Amino acid sequence: MVVEDQNLETGGGSVRVVVKGESHFRNVVWGPVRWIKMLSKELHWSFVFGVVSLYGINQGLGGSLGRVATEYYMKDVQKVQPSESQALTAITKIPWIIKPLWGILTDVLPIYGFHRRPYFVLAGVLGVVSMLFISVLGNLHLYLALLWMTISSAAMAIADVTIDACTAYNSIKHPSLASDMQSLCSLSSSIGALLGFFMSGILVHLVGSKGVFGLLTLPFALASVVGMVFSESHVPGFSYKQVNQKFIDAGRAMWRTMKCSDVWRPSLYMFISLALSLNIHEGLFYWFTDSKDGPLFAQETVGFILSIGSVGSILGATLYQLVLKDHPFRGICLWTQILFALAGMLDLILVLRLNLKLGLPDYLFIVVDEVVSQMIGRLKWMPLLVLTSKLCPHGIEGTFFALLMSIDNAGFMTSSWLGGVLLHVLKVTRTEFGNLWLAVLIRNVMRVSPLFVLFLVPKGDQNTFKLPGEIMGEDSDEEKEEARNLELASLVHSADRR
């Protein structure tokens, strides 16, 4: 019998599980399993279960299934126009804009002595109830359906901010595992999204969009299960009289920080950059599935195309990590914004059917289009996400990060509303797509406009940029290390969340 010696090797801020006496191939194959076991042992299995369940299954798998089901529900069940669908679905993102409220609640308002567990259960219950109402009730009025969709979005936002807080706490408590937790969160979300998009078209074809909403009760129920099994210290005798003062203190700290020019200037750029990148996705989706003017993609095909796009997003994140993470903020924002505008021209070629004249079939061309667009979109988003984390002062990192992310979400929602207005003005409807090419062209031109306010972005290097000392506070080396790890814990999502 060969006795294997298992070690934890630390390098580059992360932990690797290595088994001595075993071949490199076996270490590669079984390494992920041992890695998960190591994290479960060091951080408690319930935390690992929570990350996989919420980031991977609830947000990744459930979020991608919900996106495709919502598009078909609005088109085939509610039969709304593309511009209406664009504007109405943006309303469901409002709970993500008030994400700081959920963050403050989980931090300062324990329920029955627990800060996290009850909010997981609450998120699950809200999600299950909302999905059941949409899937079971027949002839549901459009605005009632929109209400239940917004409630389900709030459920996902509450679960998201709660698991974010748990990740931040563990990053401080176990600094050597901060990057491993990031890898676990990102991989769970990416794999979940891949599977969700791949399955979405097939499930919509088999059970319909309302049937998919019924299936989405399972990922939300899992959030409640996480709340039941999650390991958390009980805080007895909490004085609820303190809650009001804590809300006031948190609000004052955030306002004081936002008044700093080093904070509001890049925050304004991020909002403008997102808001002016007009979202006309619903118009393109209706065209993709049209039998007269469009390529008439089947439901299964739409799901497969979106899943391939998720691969492009992963490639973009990998390229950023390997090549672009050390470049100055302003330079990388300049080139990614230009590439973002150029990538949009692929949609113009597709809508004008120029790809067919070049001998490229629709299916092949749109797969390439989706991969390139998602990859460049991720490259554009990553430096903004890093910059967002750099703007968070010590002491209110989690809440302030949620505030900045809510500004970004407001930019996304504004982009959807402006895109809906554009589709309406150009009279792009369920059956009329004559001006869709013009909408795509205007969108691409608008994607260049944020370059005129690029001066709002700091010139600093992504690794050395930091807020002034009076905003960050005078911290010890140990506190600075904890703040850095909390910052890493906040960098969980990509835009897929939208």
Straight-line N-to-C gap: 53 Å
Radius of gyration: 23 Å
| Proportion of beta-strand residues | under 5%
Q: What structural category characterises the helix and strand content? A: mainly alpha
Can you count the helices? Answer: 21
Mean pLDDT: 81
Layout of strands and helices, then pairs:
Blueprint: E1 5-11, E2 14-20, H1 24-43, H2 45-77, H3 82-91, H4 94-97, H5 99-108, H6 117-136, H7 142-173, H8 178-215, H9 217-229, H10 242-258, H11 261-275, H12 281-288, H13 299-324, H14 329-343, H15 345-351, H16 354-357, H17 362-390, H18 397-425, H19 436-446, H20 469-472, H21 477-490
Helix pairs in contact: 1-2, 2-7, 2-8, 2-9, 3-12, 3-18, 5-7, 5-18, 6-7, 6-8, 6-9, 7-21, 8-13, 8-21, 11-18, 13-17, 14-17, 14-19, 15-19
Structure, described:
The chain is mainly α. 72% of the residues lie in helices and 3% in strands. Strands 1-2 form a two-stranded antiparallel ribbon. Helix 1 (24-43) crosses helix 2 (45-77) and helix 3 runs antiparallel to helix 18 (397-425).
Protein traits:
498 residues, mainly alpha
Care to give the gist of this entry?
This protein is 72% helix and 3% strand.
